[in-house]
Amino acid sequence: MEMKEKDFFIEMAKVKIKLNEWGNSQGIRIPKDILKLVDFENIEELSLTVVKDEFGKKKLMIEQSENKEELIKIVESLGGILSDMNEAIDIHDLRKERKEERLRKYESLN
User: Fold this and answer.
1) Taxonomically, which superkingdom (predicted)?
2) Residue ranges per structural domain of the chain
3) E-strand spans in 1-110?
4) Per-residue pLDDT for the chain (110 aa), expressed as one digit of tens each?
5) Spelled out in words, what is the top-level CATH class assigned to the domain 4-64?
6) Distance between CA 17 and CA 103 in Å, rounded?
7) Cβ-contact 48, 28 below 8 angstroms
8) Rounded Cα gap, residues 13 and 36, in angstroms
9) Rounded CA gap, 69 and 46, in Å?
């Protein structure tokens, strides 16, 4: 497997696949070796994102979907911010609260 730097990414593998009719949609089959390479072997849900590179070329990114439970674990590991596991997560509010907390702490030192 040849590795090369390309568009800020390192290309690890490249395969050609065909789009196939699947009901009213089109589908692709991702080879097992590719799924293994990106640790998607036992993943049930993926996220598709269309991005544009610096030359305007559109690309399709496939990533593992992050679920609410995983996000809660990440946020809690960063400081135990949430008191209630069922509370909705608004990352902007959390960042604002943490910033205000840091400012109060800094001001109390001066």
Assistant:
1) Bacteria
2) 4-64, 68-109
3) 4-6, 9-11, 20-22, 25-27, 46-52, 58-64
4) 444 445 567 788 889 999 999 899 999 999 999 989 988 888 878 888 898 888 889 988 888 877 667 766 777 676 555 555 555 667 778 788 888 888 888 788 76
5) mainly beta
6) 53
7) no
8) 12
9) 16
